[in-house]
Amino acid sequence: MRLGPGPRHAIPVGILLLLGFAAPLVAVTAYSLATPRSFDVFRSLTLANYRTILDPANTVWLSFAWSLLLAAATVVLLAAIAYPIAYGLARLFGRWAGLVGLLFVFPLFISENVRLYGWVLFFIKGGVLDGTLRTLLGIGGPDVLFTPGMILFGMVYVYLPFMLFPLTLGLAMVPRDLIDAARDMGASRLQIWREVELPLAMPGILIGFLLTFVLGAGAVAEAKVLGGQSVIVITHDIEIAFTYAQNWPLGSALAVLLTLLIGTLVLLVLWRLDLDRILGRR
Amino acid sequence: MRRAIGLWTGLVVVMLYLPVLCGVLASLGQSRYFRFPVQQWSTAWWERTLSSIEIGILIRTSLAIAACVTVAAVVIGFVGALAFARYDWRGRRLYQKLLLLPIFFPQPVLGLALLLWFNALGAPLSWWTAVVAHLVWIVPVVTLVIAIQVYGFDPALEEAAADMGASRLMVLREVTLPLLWPGIWSGALFAFLLSWGNFPLSLYTTGADSTVPEWLYAKMVAGYTPMVPTLGTLATLAAAGALLLGGGLLALVRRVREAG
Amino acid sequence: MAEPILRLAGVGKTFGQLRAVDRLVLDVEEGEFLTIVGPSGSGKTTLLRMLAGLETPSEGDIVLRGRRINDLPPEKRPTCLVFQSLALFPHRTVGQNIEFPLKVRGVAAAERRRRAHELMAMVRLPADYYGKNVQKCSGGERQRVALARAFAYDPEILFFDEPLSAIDYKLRKTLEKELKDIHKETGKTFIYITHSLEEAMVMSDRIGVMHQGRLVQVGTPEDIYQRPRNLFVAAFMGEVNQIPVRRNGNGTWEGLDLAGHFRADATAERGHLVIRPELMRFVSARDAADNVVEGLLYNEYSLGSRLQYQIRVGEKVLVVERSRGDAFAGDPSAPVLVGWDVRDQLFLED
After folding, report:
1. Is B36's CB within 8 Å of A115's CB?
2. Is the dihedral of CA A70, A76, A79, A84 positive or negative?
């Protein structure tokens, strides 16, 4: 069988995704069905790990709840923070938009640990905030480090670009003429936003929400670096199972559950979107 | 409203870079533990960091991974972007969405999954396995970056060249690559920088080798020294340098071409 | 004379160094169909956007019924613009698009629906299009939706920014006539811009010709066609023959890029003779027309019902158009005589 040029060019990416993404997920699933605390993958088949997780005595659901709650809160806060900036990038900044955009992209190239640790240096006793306040006003800085609020702050900080750029892309999809036309027909700013801008930018908005929620639900560095041990998020639990606890099957089962949750959400949203329109603007 | 949005954007940018600045401050103090305001400024920790053999190895490992990732990601991503945006084929929509899945996936979980998979294959973990891990999420990003350029590319140009007797290779060299190079170049920059700064994937897949972000993390959790903010700042400066160099080159070539 | 509905008093717009619109002075009468014609870059779209309130004039005043509206935002102006792109909301149905201005104003759903159907009938859209997705509509249908939506706003003046430019020739002709009919039925004031003089001729009561930010001539279609004020307007009408001339001592004019002496009713020293191709004819003798030149026939084109000839006279090429019944019958290889009468030519002073 001869393949057309399209499928032929898709082969390298296809192989990579098959071996680097699909296969590892299959491996995780296989491990999740192995005997607890063992390494005999593919040789044992049991639901014991899932039973352990679903056991009401197990408090792992709390980690799930924290992760989802933090992720949801991150999405809400980021929407409010990033929307005006996205509007500026898409509409107002003109020739400065490229430079401003670059300022928001660059942090992606710095390891999130480095940036989060910068905040530790800022908020810690004797750190930048504490030191400044002490010198200027003679009072100490607030004791905010290692609290759930701080984790949320860190997540909002790290995932900002993942909300900002999809929103900008979405807003850029709204033709200028439509906004002008709505104004010309007497619509107020709020009416334009609700009737024209929001529905037309929705694909970008959905991508931004989805991306930040998914990444937030799997976030771990924020909780570990900024949160101390105040909250254990689900990815942290998975990590513990893999490292200290040496219980790979249990960790795998948790990972499978998280993947199912995220996967369902992603597929639900992604399947409705027309990527050609969002990226190509044809 | 214009002014309010400008002001808000400025404020958020300041917040974005504030922690980076804190790292710089911490790297320039003399004392073993960070105190602000800094009592005694010193470049001692910079000298120590730059002369450390251990850190030299870290940087070399990180660079090696980033270089391999860049080359492989650009090749795979370029071909993948043509399938994404250039050709119209049945299954393209599905392909576009499948390609995005690794981006929409928490990296720590992906790293662990790869760890299991390499383990099941019996592959020994080293910086090579980290290259594979990085590729899984960097290739989709690079593909998207190049695809955006491909959308603006008129396939008729390729057809015209072929019509005038150019071979497939000549069409690629004379038409396709020259027109798509800004996208390819941006894709390469993204690949390099994203790999350079990546932590969650490296953590589980480098085995005994260690990258800069991994080392930083290990020291943050246990064993802080001012070399942590120093190396962090160094890594940031390196990324900024690469970006300026890459971006500058892009702008320069573009200007020369437009003038010529 | 009644007060004009719209008065432009030295309205101008500058972008940096560029004077896009140069201090226009113009009165628009209530109920008229005024078309502004000009090539792209002549400033006509900028003018329209200023009138609609989407741009602010750099100088001068826009006066609506005696009230200065320079600083009135578009949503407060009793005017509505039909965009070149039509600016239909792609996520809304035909009905929802038409009802948009009513919804914005808080009109109840039932009343909106009734009004939308009325307007659809007016613009000749079938009633069952009410629930149709606008993106599924054809070019002509989208056109009608945009028009109905503009009327739903119930503006005092409607502006049109070349809305027909993307439509194929035949349908465009139909829509032009329909628009003219709707103008008559509604009695609203229409200000229309286009780069096609042909379109302007069909629809307008008055035409303003714009060139480099200025209104070079304003008049009825007849005026513009018969008495163009300068060469730009004359040439903008379509293909014309232009012969630069200088007065001789003996009361005739001497061609500057074309050897020969010409007669004209004029007193100026220098000017251009402008002759439409269809007013030139082949003649058999030098005295068979007021002005005659000799040249070589070197090309012939069919324009459908008419034929066009290119005649080379020295370095210059003249264009002659004849109907098929009056085709060139002579020897195409021999020199030919082309002539026209003084009453068919225009003399434009330099």
Report:
1. no
2. negative
In terms of average pLDDT, the best of C157-161, C228-232, C250-254 is C157-161
C348 phi and psi angles, rounded to 5 deg: -110, 120
Cis? peptide before C277, omega within 30° of 0: no
Query: β-pairing, C157-161 with C189-194?
Result: parallel
Looking at residue A192, which CATH number applies to its domain? 1.10.3720.10
Closest CA to C231 of C291, C275, C280: C275
A280 has a pLDDT exceeding 80: no
pLDDT of residue A230: 86
Contact A186, C101 (CB under 8 A): yes
Q: What is the mean pLDDT of chain A?
A: 91
Distance in angstroms (rounded) separating the CA atoms of residues B236 and B187: 19
- Partner residue opposite B213 with nearest CB, options A113, A224, A242: A113
Predicted ipTM of the assembly = 0.92
Tell me which residue range forms the domain holding A166.
59-278
Contact A195, A223 (CB under 8 A): no
Token duo for residue A195? 């009737």
Give the β-pairing of C189-194 and C206-211: unpaired
Chains A and B touch (3+ CB pairs under 8 A): yes
Inside any domain, residue A221 = yes
Flag the least confident range among A1-15, B73-87, C42-56. Answer: A1-15
How far A148 CA lies from chain C's nearest CA (Å)?
41
Residue numbers in A near C100 (CB within 8 A): 182, 185, 187, 195
The label of the residue with tokens 């899984």 reads B136
Cβ–Cβ contacts within 10 Å for residue C47, how many?
A: 29
| Domains, chain B, with CATH or none | 58-259 (1.10.3720.10)
Query: CB–CB of C74 and A178 under 8 A?
Result: no
Q: How distant is the alpha carbon of residue C64 from its chain centre?
A: 24
Determine B/C contact with 3+ CB pairs under 8 A as the test: no
Question: What residues of A are in contact with residue C52 (Cβ under 8 Å)?
Answer: 184
User: How many Cβ atoms are within 10 Å of A264's Cβ, its own excluded?
Assistant: 10
Average pLDDT, chain B: 92
Please report residues of A whose CB lies closer than 8 A to that of C76.
186
Q: Which domains does chain C have, with CATH numbers?
A: 6-233 (3.40.50.300), 239-349 (2.40.50.100)
Among B9, B89, B137, B233, pick the best mutation site for testing chain A contact (most A Cβ within 10 A): B9
> Does the pLDDT value for residue A282 go beyond 50?
no
Residues of A in contact with B114 (CB under 8 A): 20, 24
Q: Which of B104, B116, B147 sits opposite A211 (nearest CB)?
A: B104
CA-nearest residue of chain C to A189?
C75
Contact: B37, A135; criterion CB under 8 Å: yes
Mean pLDDT of all residues in B45-65: 94
Q: CB distance from A175 to chain C under 8 Å?
A: yes
DSSP letter at B105 equals S
A186 closest CB neighbour out of C87, C91, C153? C153
Question: Does the distance separating the beta carbons of A177 and C104 come in below 8 Å?
Answer: no
Q: Which of C215, C255, C257 is nearest to C236 (CA)?
A: C215
Nearest to C91 among A182, A187, A200 (CB): A200
> What are φ and ψ of residue C9, in 5° steps?
-115, 90
User: Is residue A44 predicted with pLDDT exceeding 90?
Assistant: no
- How far apart, in whole angstroms, are the C-alpha atoms of residue C96 and residue C82? 17
- Among partner residues B85, B102, B235, which is closest to A110 by beta-carbon distance? B235
Q: Is C319 within 8 Å of C241 (Cβ atoms)?
A: yes
Q: What is the pTM of this model?
A: 0.88
Residue B72 phi/psi, 5-degree rounding, is: -65, -40
Among residues A206, A121, A116, the alpha carbon closest in space to that of A163 is found at: A206
Residue B243: the pLDDT is 93
Split into its structural domains, chain A has a count of 1
